[in-house]
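Discussion board: Methods & Data

I've been asked by a reviewer to show the raw model output for two of the constructs in my manuscript, not just the figures. I'm not sure how much to include, so I'm pasting the format here to get opinions. Each protein appears as its amino acid sequence followed by a line of discrete structure tokens. Is this the kind of thing reviewers expect to see in a supplement, or should I convert it first? Here is construct A:
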Amino acid sequence: MLVIDVPATLANLGAGYDTLGLAVGLHNRFTIRAGVWGEDDLVAHTARRAGERFGTPCPPFTVEQEERVPRSRGLGSSATARVAGLLAWRELTGAAVDEQAELAFLAAEECHPDNVWPARLGGLVVCGALARRAPVHPSVRVAVVSPAFEVSTPEARAALPSAVPHADAVANLGALALLLVGLRDGDPDALAAGVVDRLHQPYRAHLLGPVDAAFANARELGAAPFVSGSGSTLAAFVTGRASPSPTPWRPPSSRRASAWSRGCSHPPWTGRASAGRNSPPHRGGKMSILERVSEDLKVAMKARDKDRLQGLRGIRAAFIEALKADGSETLDPEEELAILRRLAKQRRESIDAYVAGGREELADTERAELAVIEGYLPSLAGPEQTAAWVDAAIAATGASTMKDMGKVMGALMKDHKAELDAKLANTIIKERLG
């Protein structure tokens, strides 16, 4: 038996949009047992893909999860599963892989380095062309509140403008520098200035509720508040001015019981034991796309179509993960499409990464999976229809400047999410309001 603990992560941290991530003292625990492959969840799926990527197949295993990290709340829940899958593969195969290669693989799988890199490395991580840990003063703590509603990452991404004013970009650079100084020195004034953002939080506020009021209350208590990832979780840095919340920033740990004898390369977790629930994969959901995928899986298995089988298993695993997140038996059509589009985006980015790395054979595998995913997606509206929707949304919201872009996109997503090409809509909105 192998036990792997992986920390939750906070991303963006205010002014560090897509560049900063922080591991915190909340973790998911994954118990890995040797045997036949069980449900093809995200951990097993990642372990298999690691075997393909690095040329050493992973022996079969089953997974039990103790979850404390809320799903779809901007705390990197899926990143914990990705990291657990990679560590399980590494421990079970004994393969030695360069750390940078591991990070590149995780970034291609998760598409959010500012979540998955700190989940793998621990601590505060600067995510750019390279991953580098940065110092955090021991007086700095994090307070976190996770509301009982989700924010769709695709919807949050779509709310962002394709361009921002030069003054906003310069302001964020200054805030980012102050944020790093504040975290290094435990300087509450630098932290307060460093979490002020102009690139993403203002455009997403309509998705999160009364953020301004919550932030004002936090500042009155001496905290430095920000949105974690795309939300809905709100977090705040605190020092001596507010009551701290313990945050042991450690990398993920793994340890073995007697079932596997080889030692592990990470120390065991030393924080509090998990109090989360055990969440086995859901098996009984009845959804139109899930039913189709299940039937297509049977056909692919009989035909021994390995490429199609891999893509179908990835889709099914993503749906099961979503069902487990809210404990329901069904997903509505918008949720189904959002999951499929996320998977398609991951595959496209993986293709680009593998092509850039000269691994054309792996890029071909990704292309085959992308073709399977796209087979379940509806056609998106073209330029003429999208322009008509944009004009109607602008009229309905009273938008007149680029600052209103988030409102327009929010209205479009509400009415036309299933058929909307967000990138095309962003371009048209910019033409209309720019």
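Construct B, same format:
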Amino acid sequence: MSVFRLLLDQMPDEEVAQSLRNAGHDVIRVSEIGFAMADDAVILEHAVRDDRTLVTLDEHFGD
């Protein structure tokens, strides 16, 4: 099985994160690393630097 390295934006809740973790994925929520109020560019930069796929429900992410 492939393990995904994910960074969840603030909209997916803890239940989503826990379900992904239970499935064996490496998941971090922005709120867990002090980025809950960070600009979109900062969040994306962190995802790239940490080699994670960013998951967001924000239709205006990056605007």
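Answer (T.O., handling editor elsewhere):
This is acceptable in a supplement if you add a one-line summary per construct. For B, something like: The mean pLDDT is 94.
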